[in-house]
Amino acid sequence: MSASHFLSLPTSTPVINPGVGEDPEQWFAIQTRARHEKVVEQRLRDKGVVTFLPLVKVERQWSDRRKIVDMPLFSCYVFAKFPAHNDHRLRVLVVDGVVKLVGSGGRGAPIPEAQIEAVEKLMQEQLPYSVYPFLKIGQRVRIRSGALTGVEGILLQRSGERTLVVSIDAIQRSLAVRIEGYNLESL
Q1: % residues pLDDT > 90 (the chain)
Q2: Secondary structure of residue 187 in the 3-state scheme
Q3: 3-class SS at 169?
Q4: H-assigned helices in the chain
Q5: Do residues 13 and 103 both lie within one domain?
Q6: Hey, CA dihedral for 155, 185, 122, 31, is it positive or negative?
Q7: Burial class (CB in 10 A: 0-12, 13-18, 19+), 31
Q8: 94 in a domain, yes or no?
Q9: How far is it, in rounded angstroms, from Cα 149 to Cα 104?
Q10: Which residue range forms the structural domain that includes residue 30?
Q11: CATH number for the domain harbouring residue 95
């Protein structure tokens, strides 16, 4: 695997309008069996579930060749948007390759829309990134101008450069991106 990664655009399906009186759709993290992220994402889409599987382009080396392949940004995780009602949870949990919904008691913990949107925005801008250890402490900030306007995260100082860490709390994974030159506000 090379040290350089490039983000590719997410795949998703159109939103299916929930019936009258149903819970609103929320994002959930789904833990998958190892190397089953793409197939689980496709099976969920086939069932009409809105999905988000962030992929990165990675160079792989085999004995006879090198190839650029799309790999999941967060291994063993797929994100899905559906109402929190038990019928919808069951529809997701019965998909082959799904291990569980991430959250207490296997019921799944909703992920704030802003966290999913932040990862989508970072991917669309195709900025260089690095996977960063999950953090619970630090100053939360929001970018006020530029291509990443509205993205929120934790501000750090790494090697003399300002870095924004965007986290998905439910799966305890984070991304770090350099933000020199961006106008920030504290939250």
Answers
A1: 51
A2: coil
A3: helix
A4: 37-46, 86-93, 113-125
A5: yes
A6: positive
A7: middle
A8: yes
A9: 33
A10: 6-111
A11: 3.30.70.940
In tens, the pLDDT along 49-79 reads 999 999 988 888 989 999 999 999 999 999 9
Q: Quote the CA–CA distance of 184 and 109 in Å, as a whole number.
A: 29
Q: Does one domain contain both 98 and 146?
A: no
Q: Which two tokens stand for residue 90?
A: 């069951």
152-167 b/e with 16+ CB inside 10 Å = b?
Answer: bbbbbeeeeeebbbbb
Half-sphere exposure of residue 66: CA atoms within 13 angstroms, side-chain side: 5
Our count of domains for the chain comes to: 2
Q: Is residue 62 located within the same domain as residue 102?
A: yes
> Is residue 120 in some structural domain?
no
CA distances from 178 to 10, 68, 158, 169 (A): 21, 24, 9, 20
What is the pLDDT at residue 125?
Answer: 87
Question: End of a domain among 48, 81, 111?
Answer: 111
Same domain, yes or no: 38 and 73: yes
DSSP category for residue 171: G
* Residue 142 pLDDT grade (very low, low, confident, very high; cuts 50, 70, 90): confident
């997410």: which residue's tokens?
10
| Residue 1 resides in a domain | no
Q: Which two tokens stand for residue 162?
A: 């300002």
